[in-house]
Amino acid sequence: PPPPPPAAQVLITELQAPLDITFELSGKTLDFKLIYRQYAALFIVVGVNGTENEMAIYEFIHNFVEVLDEYFNRVSELDIMFNLDKVHIILDEMMLNGCIVETNRARILAPLLILDKMSES
Amino acid sequence: MVVPSRKLQDLIEEIRGAKTQAQEREVIQKECAHIRASFRDGDPLHRHRQLAKLLYVHMLGYPAHFGQMECLKLIASPRFTDKRVGYLGAMLLLDERQDAHLLITNSIKNDLNQGIQVVQGLALCTLSTVGSAEMCRDLATEVEKLLLQPGSYVRKKAVLTAVHMIRKVPELSNIFLPPCAQLLHERHHGILLGTITLITELCERSPAALKHFQKVVPQLVQILRTLVTTGYSTEHSISGVSDPFLQVQILRLLRILGRNHEESSDTMNDLLAQVATNTDTSRNAGNAVLFETVLTIMDIRSATGLRVLAVNILGRFLLNSDKNIRYVALTSLLRMVQSDHSAVQRHRPTVVECLREVDASLSRRALELSLALVNSSNVRAMTQELQSFLESCSPDLRADCASGILLAAERFAPTKRWHIDTILRVLTTAGTHVRDDAVANLTQLIGGAQELHAYSVRRLYSALAEDISQQPLVQVAAWCIGEYGDLLLEGSCEETEPLQVEEEDVLDLLEKVLQSHMSLPATRGYALTALMKLSTRLRGDNNRIRQVVSIYGSCLDMELQQRAVEYNTLFRKYDHMRAAILEKMPLVERGGTQDEEIKESKEAQLSEASLVPTEPQASELLDLLDLLDGTSGAAQPPPPLEPSPGDVLVHLLDLPCDLPSASPPPASIPNLRVFEREGLQLNLSFVRPPGTPALLLITITAINTSEADVIHFICQAAVPKSFQLQLQAPSGDTVPAHSGLPVTQLLRILNPNKAPLRLKLRLTYNHFGQSVQEIFEVNNLPMETWQ
User: Fold this and answer.
1) H or E segment at B413?
2) Which intervals hold domain AP complex mu/sigma subunit (chain A) (predicted)?
């Protein structure tokens, strides 16, 4: 079976971990790496398998945060918590089943902004 | 009564307001009960809100499986908000193990076909996350259609959905391979990114696809070149690098295409060098691209100059202030150290610097890399560095470092003295962390270096005098003092400072070790034995030693007590033998005896196994074991039973009845396998007893390797009229399964005219519940049977 692609993001409030972790998942050991970035009190963690370029994922995390920043106007942890569905939409625009789709901020936010406008009117 | 449902925001606020875990659970349980009731009532207006709340609760870790059917209903609804939440719920709550997931196939199909882009996007997203093999097969054509239609929003998603489909159902690669060529010409980066991922997936799965796509390497090179050389473009640049994600993907694909393929690798060489030199490395994005380039260079068939460039880039990474880049560089260098050893060696000083890292995972990587870089020319310097690291490093790394140093010392030690010194230093610094066989290794090493006995014993004595807590050190020191105590006491040794040691001091020290509560029982054993040996080495009288030994005769530890009692007896009753018993030990062979034992047991097993088949090759081993007296290859024919009724020819009985088991036949005739069917094998073995030239003894052996027994087995034989045949009773009529005890039957054939032998066999038996009858003539009878 093919190795699992970069897993979906997990938002948690506390993490102390080195960069490499081996996971026990349903009895099998899977070799996962955790790549995380800390933004004040918020950690964004991405789990990837061995073949991914760690630095590129690092960059991707920052890209994601920048998109959130633009949408929420200086995003904070509370913004994410209270607007979880919107965050999911943004994430789904950027990443499909673990593969990066779109990294251009304008294109990612376009459908969401249209939706917002429609629901307001 | 309909309780008005709360908004998601309110729920979140309440959950966050809960002060304790129990309170939170209470709030959530109450809300889940509301949600369940609402689902039961089937309220379509607020369903999406309920599901949204349920998903939030699910994210916190509470069970949410009762929402699965609601996802289906929401997906089927025409409103976008419903669909949105429904699909999200499907992605989060459903997976292949649930039966419900198949039910959304139809909804997805409908949504894919109607033209609203956002809805199509949603459906594709869900399909690529939870799509099972059946779903993929059903919807493949829809996805392919979407691949080719003009809107870029849906297209980029369709391409990645194709990636997922290929992962689930590899046969679909045939559908998705042709559009790739056209998709590569797109300018939209999202589509390009997806296409590259798709091609990567195809190539990883099938070598035929790999060959097919090696033709597009020039095109890929062109795309990458444009990316690298065009200036700043607002659309895609991230900290000065234009679309690093696309660059990284292309580089990864080039890596797969160029692996083991000279032609593609050549095409890429220039481009890789260009990327490596032109990329701006001040920010992380550039470093990411550079890192991928390095990985690609290492994997394809690149020129040596390029490989050196790659290693140098990694070396530069090591000097970067960002910890992550250093980490990544260390890991990659470790992968490369085997293949490009000399190139990595050039960065040895930087690697050694990294040993001083504060971060534990970095210093661990640096340690592994440093150990891999030790070779015979730099071993002294490296060991020096590693030993200073050992003194200051964290406890969990100590064990690895110590064993690493010891291993390196063993492989590359320039002199024995240096080797002993190194091990000594490791033992004093990190004695408790060394592996168990370090003691044995060191004693063996010292024992073998005769010229260094005096030196070693002095060094060890001084070390022991300072500190008796490190057990391996104490054990080795005690052993040495015991063996070479005389060398310790006599005068000076040129290599160390003059050390005047009195007998009393030595005995004091050993007694201290014996009495110390830090000493392990094994260490005490060493010390006691050393004391005993000293009784012959020292010139003074042995009263003190005798005293100590008799005290330990009543020690609570069994091992010590036994030793002490035995030594006591040695003093009292066998004093005349004491000197001989306590002589210097001969050098112990390291590991040699163990290997020989294993070899011997293997040989014994081999010869036992070969007793069962009756092949002439087994004869040598059989001779070795000498179990059968004298047969070489021929099976043991059963002793002749009472002659079969009828056909007893008089002159047969006149022949001297020479049992073949008593005398070895002059020439062994090879055995013949004459029949095989469903695991039942029939072998013939021939014996021509020397005293009777016209007689041929054939033993028919029936072996059953199948699962079921063969029952009612009867074998009959027929020969031409000029021969005389006597068939003796078989050993049994059941051939047991799984190669159990074979059935044998003896045939005696008299051939006075020395005519060519022809033999026909008829078998009847029951096997697997069916009765079988076989009649066949034995061909290929060797000439020796009748000549």
Assistant:
1) none
2) 31-118
Tokens of B186: 């797109």
Flag if A101 and B81 touch (Cβ within 8 Å).
no
Return the number of CB contacts < 8 Å for A and B.
102
Q: Which residues in chain A (36-65) have CB-CB distances under 8 A to chain B?
A: 53-56, 58-60, 62-63
- Mean predicted confidence (pLDDT) in B16-38: 86
Whole-model pTM?
0.65
Residue B443, pLDDT > 50, answer: yes
Query: Residue B129 and residue A19: Cβ atoms within 8 Å?
Result: no
Subunit contact A84:B285, Cβ cutoff 8 A = no
Supply the pLDDT for residue B346.
85
Which is higher by pLDDT, B101 or B746?
B746
- Span A36-55, pLDDT tens digits: 888 887 888 888 877 788 88
Min CA distance, A93 vs chain B (Å)? 9
Phi-psi label, residue B740: left if phi above 0, alpha if psi -120 to 50, beta otherwise: beta
- Reported as a single tens digit per residue, the pLDDT across B648-665 is 444 444 444 444 444 444
**B243/A103 CB distance under 8 A:** yes
Angle at B443 between CA B442 and CA B447, to 5 degrees: 115
| Cα nearest neighbour of B124 on chain A | A96
User: Smallest CA–CA separation between B509 and chain A, in Å?
Assistant: 46
Q: Average pLDDT of B407-432?
A: 82
Measured between alpha carbons, how far is B168 from A97 in angstroms, rounded to an integer?
13
**Residue B374: exposed, middle, or buried by beta-carbon count in 10 A (0-12, 13-18, 19+)?**
buried
Give the nearest partner residue to A97 out of B16, B118, B160, using CB atoms. Answer: B160
pLDDT-wise least confident of B165-174, B301-310, B612-621: B612-621
Residue B450 has pLDDT above 80, yes or no: no
For B556-589, the pLDDT digits (tens) are 888 888 888 888 888 888 777 777 777 777 766 6
Q: Is A18 on the interface with B (CB under 8 A)?
A: yes
**Best to test chain A binding among B143, B159, B193, B245 (most A CBs inside 10 Å):** B245
Rounded Cα distance between B134 and B142, Å, is 14
Taking the CA of residue B194 and the nearest CA in chain A, the distance in Å comes to: 6
When pLDDT is cut at 50, 70 and 90, the band that residue A29 belongs to is: low
pLDDT over 90 percentage in chain B: 0
A25 at B interface, C-beta within 8 A: no
Largest CA distance in chain A: 52
**ipTM of this predicted complex?**
0.80
Identify any residues that bridge with B681 across adjacent strands, giving them in sequence order.
B676, B703
Residue A84 at interface with chain B, using a CB cutoff of 8 Å:
yes
- A2 and B236 within 8 Å at the Cβ level: the answer is no
Separation CA B609–CA B606 (nearest Å): 5
Region of B647 on the Ramachandran plot (φ > 0 left; ψ -120 to 50 alpha; else beta): left
CA B287 – CA B313 distance, rounded (Å): 10
What DSSP letter does each residue of chain A carry, written as one string?
-PPPPSPPPEEES-----SEEEEEETTEEEEEEEEEEEETTEEEEEEE-TTS-HHHHHHHHHHHHHHHHHHHTS--HHHHHHTHHHHHHHHHHHEETTEE----HHHHHHHHHHHHHHHH-
Local structure of B657: helix, strand or coil: coil
Nearest to B223 by CA among B264, B193, B256: B193
Chain B positions touching A22 (Cβ under 8 A) are none
Interchain contact A12–B (C-beta under 8 A)? no
A99 touches chain B (CB under 8 A): yes
Mean pLDDT of B290-311: 86
